Automatic annotation (TrEMBL):
GO molecular function per UniProt: DNA binding; DNA-binding transcription factor activity
Keywords: DNA-binding, Repressor, Transcription, Transcription regulation
Name of the protein described by the UniProt record: DeoR family transcriptional regulator
SMART domains for this protein: DeoRC (SM01134), HTH_DEOR (SM00420)
Location of the HTH deoR-type domain: 3-58
PANTHER family linked to this entry: GLYCEROL-3-PHOSPHATE REGULON REPRESSOR (PTHR30363:SF4), HTH-TYPE TRANSCRIPTIONAL REGULATOR SRLR-RELATED (PTHR30363)
Pfam families: DeoRC, HTH_DeoR
Protein's UniProt keywords contain Protease: no
Length: 252
């Protein structure tokens, strides 16, 4: 059974804070404390949040949410982002599709392209595109992260450095106004860092809820990113990214 819309909003919110109190959630959603406690119980039972005295906190800054839940979180925004990315990438291009569930939505949006060369360390991406012979797929070697369905480590980094891609499509665990693009795991961040370096055009795909998430591993500053595809930004975020030379595409 999936989460309801309020529970999804709570999950997005808590990842941007050190902790949330029951009273704060009651005020925001205009529901009873009993309803919020029921939400907390369901989220905690799935190990999506950590209980605290009087509320909840993120599970960790070193580990992302479980893959099976991330696939469906903010799915409408991810689909819109993916559709706009697919419009930018032409037939015949070489593309690296990196780690993350938003990147998997991009893979689905690229299935009608022709003569595309896709490189990836994302096994779900490879599975999606494996049914479309017009898209040639190469999967880099590496160490399997079972929980996230991807490959990381020195073999992956070495494989990445052998190529220079037309487009690199990059997901992330979080974004910070001072630190730039962040991820949860250092090995994951290392792959994303090299992906940016080995791409002529770097496309960051991230919905608005990635801002302020407590991811600890630094990937790249915003100045290394060419395009951000997102659903919404604040005025200050837009000004910050523009000052770093990032082109912004709002997707809806």
């Amino acid at each position: 059974m999936g989460l309801n819309e309020r529970q999804n909003q709570i999950l997005n919110w808590v990842q941007q804070e050190d902790a949330l109190l029951v009273e704060e959630m009651v005020a925001r959603f205009n529901v009873s404390p009993q309803t919020i406690r029921k939400d907390i119980n369901q989220l905690a039972e799935r190990h999506l949040v950590r209980r605290t005295h009087g509320g909840i906190a993120p599970v960790s800054s070193t580990e992302n949410l479980p893959f099976d839940h991330r696939q469906f979180l903010n799915s409408d925004a991810k689909e819109a982002i993916a559709a706009d990315v697919a419009k930018v990438i032409p037939d015949g291009a070489s593309v690296f599709l990196g780690i993350g569930t938003t990147v998997e939505y991009v893979a689905k949006a690229l299935v009608s392209h022709h003569d595309l060369q896709v490189f990836t360390n994302n096994l779900t991406v490879a599975s999606i595109l494996g049914n479309y012979p017009e898209v040639r797929v190469r999967v880099l070697a590496g160490k399997l992260r079972h929980q996230h369905h991807d490959l990381v480590g020195e073999e992956t980094l070495s494989g990445l450095r052998q190529y220079y891609f037309d487009y690199g499509v990059l997901g992330c665990g979080g974004m910070d106004e001072a630190q730039g693009v962040l991820d949860f795991d250092p090995e994951e961040a290392a792959v994303s860092r090299v992906l940016v370096e080995q791409s002529r055009h770097c496309l960051l795909v991230a919905d608005q809820h990635k801002w302020g998430r407590k991811a600890m591993a630094r990937v790249q500053p915003f100045s290394a990113i060419d395009w951000l595809f997102t659903d919404a930004l604040t005025e200050s975020q837009t000004q910050l990214l523009t000052s770093h030379g990032v082109q912004i595409k709002f997707c809806s």
